[in-house]
Amino acid sequence: MDVLSVLLHFIFPIKMLLRLYSFCILMVDVAWVVFNAICATFQAAYELFRPPPLKTVRLETAMVIGSGRGVGRQIAMQLADLGAIVLCIDINHQNNEDTVDHIKLRGGSAASYICDVTRREKIEELAAQIKKDVGFVSMLFYCCGIPSPRSLMTQPPQDIHKTLDLTLTSYFWLIDNFLPEMKTRDHGHIVALTSVAGLSYIKDKMPLSVAQFAVQGLAESLMEDLRINKIDNVHVTLIHIYPFIVNDEYHDVKLRIPSYFGTISPVEAASSILDSVRRNYPEASVPKHLLCLGHLLRILPRRATVLIRDLLDTGVDFA
């Protein structure tokens, strides 16, 4: 018994010391996290006034899916103006050819590919053809699934499978075909465009809202995958586009608070998107101030977010 008492006398202090050591390590880790979180917050505030420098896209091979109209067309044209080699992908042959012709008339480099991205086998054929024609694709812009203002108001509820295939599932197939080489080379940029349905539910458009909420999850999962695997030079940018803001061919849209929302052209929207991409922002919106609203809606209580959504509801009407 005396020997056991002596052993216990030594063991208990050792256990206490180990617990104290573990507690100290935990406190150091917590302090380090808090310190870095504060630094990141100050850095984000600083970058509001002094944004990161714009990276060049000259001679990058950029694939733009949905280049036949609207914002996708303008992104393709502006990328070409910046010196990128643009691969225009669309299901509409004539619209896509028009985009390529405009780029070439302006002295840019572009090629046209026709593909139904809702079919996996077509995407695999497209990927094989592009790798054969041009090799490595370093930038991927997915502009499909962004609805027009009128379609949001006048079209019947979407077919669930078609909406998910166009808005979400095709992302996975494209990523499967083009991301591995970006990882191998540690170079690339994937740009996911969603509508505001990815921030807030749109009346009578549940399949679209669900799909675009999922696109946000996909983009954030991609960012985490790249971070965990220590791939620093492949970037992901998630862009939220407010459809009623981009005044393309619909000039008769009326907004409840025009001084807050206003409208911009597809040219301005594309320029804003490329500005965010070239600064490697992980998330942005068109217009830019709506991103802050989206973050605010995530942290406020449910009742408060409902009141804000009711206040800022577009109140869309067509003249």
What is the structure about, briefly put?
The chain is α/β, with parallel strands linked by helices. The chain has helices spanning 2-49, 70-81, 93-105, 120-133, 149-154, 160-185, 206-228, 266-278, 289-299, 302-312; strands at 61-65, 85-90, 109-114, 139-142, 188-195, 234-241, 253-254, 283-286, 317-318.
Low-confidence stretches: 149-154, 314-319
Indicate the proportion of strand residues. Answer: 5-15%
Rg of Cα set: 24 Å
Based on Cα principal axes, name the global outline.
globular
| Straight-line distance between termini | 95 Å
Count of individual helical segments: 10
CATH superfamily: NAD(P)-binding Rossmann-like Domain
Helix content: 55-70%
Order of neighbouring strands in the sheet with most strands: 3-2-1-4-5-6-8
Order of helices and strands: HEHEHEHEHHEHEEHEHHE
What is the number of domains?
A: 1
What CATH calls the topology is Rossmann fold
By secondary-structure content and strand pairing, the structural class works out as: alpha/beta
Task: Please name the CATH architecture.
Answer: 3-Layer(aba) Sandwich
